């Protein structure tokens, strides 16, 4: 069995050989079904999703149906994990944004009093494991209200969404609010991610390199890189990072304090960056769990346990 997590920008698949991440933006003409078809021949698939929210779909129901149909073309017996903590065989509203709950459902079985920070390309899921039944049925809107979802990530957050100015040539300079640079650019030049981790499209469609990222960052103050130099562009990256770090770490501490949760388990491509800052455990380095595809890994494990125990999911 393989585990599949269909996001709005990335398709993540976990199988016996490891983690496979495909850039697959659902707001454009998607090759989702084609990519999944390359895994044909596996016994079955367990699936979670959050890509139904992509703005290529008029409603989330339309997105759910699109994703389910794409999977069923290759895996007609696939099972889909929902926010009711159950598996389903066809499209239904419960499938919307259930990927985070699959991760919680798996991790709580070993760490019932713990909590999770899963920070990926786009969002940060910050969820305590205790009182799991209270989490069942929780939508992303409710999670935003509870502080369990913080909409910022390591790659796709516009720089101007969190930071507003940086010191350029000794003068505090406001940012433009254009989508000139993203969190991936900031994290790349600061050394938090490498080329392989920068898997999403760049704001200008150009390459991923240190110079290209610095050029995009310089655009935030309407400048060429030659005008403000590498130092100025790095100040822009540092301004964004300070704002994002404070936002995520503050949210983690609030949830940890309110729930009395311990330990904190950190997943996502930001795990190695945020685990030391939050006093958390990096799921990959400490526990050998593939942090960069935690929901796909989790849904595969949960489905596997049910199949071994009952002969069916």
Automatic annotation (TrEMBL):
Limits of the Hydantoinase A/oxoprolinase domain: 46-273
InterPro entries (UniProt xref): Hydantoinase_A (IPR002821), MfnF (IPR002756)
First and last residue of the signal peptide: none
Domain of life the protein comes from: Archaea
GO MF annotation terms: hydrolase activity
Protein name in UniProt: H4MPT-linked C1 transfer pathway protein
Organism encoding this protein: Methanocorpusculum parvum
Organismal lineage: Archaea, Methanobacteriati, Methanobacteriota, Stenosarchaea group, Methanomicrobia
